[in-house]
Amino acid sequence: MLEYLFFAPHPDDAELGAGGSILLLKSQGARVGVLDLTDGEPTPHGSPEVRRAETEAATRILGLDWRGNLGLPNRSLVADLEARRRLAGVLRELRPRDLFAPYWEDAHPDHVAASALADAARFWAKLTKTDLPGEPHYPQRILYYFSVHLRLHPRPSFVLDVTPHIEGKMQALACYRSQFIEGRPATPPTLLDSLRDRARYWGWAIGAGYGEPFVCREEVGLRGLRDLV
Ligand SMILES: [Zn+2]
User: pTM here?
Assistant: First the structure.
């Protein structure tokens, strides 16, 4: 069983939006998994084999307890009933306490579909009198991370201080050479520089070094104030 499960439309989206947070959760002893919905290919400099090897390398750096790939069609991801059924089945088997999904507003249709699928699968996973595998399960929360193909400035519900884990996040991102390094301008600021800058911006916003923002549609409760940055 997992405590936290991240749904990612493509292998690299969980690292982009929440790589530092995953490392933070792992440093606190949590059980964390990532479910990639597609193989993310084709891309200009990648191939299924290359992307798989890159994903395995990033998975080792993150120290994930579980990583799977649902094998849904890249570029053609649709929030249909069959995809919802398969995702709900994974939720009933892995039984995560909290679920993470991409932010719902995005230029990439796969990201929009993944966000909608996460909402629908979370609800379906709790159904009784169904032929879904496993037992009913309802993740307590669904939190949305940012890996958007838009220059958005949405207001997050909270920002996690990932300062001690920024180098690990950058190492995990650098595993995806075909996505972030090959064929990209090598003169600064590189794409990786700009991804670090974004984490720095969110860190600045909370008076810390580096941060990752999350949105929750429902209210976020606290048991105390001591962990506030
Ligand atoms: Zn993506």
Answer: 0.97
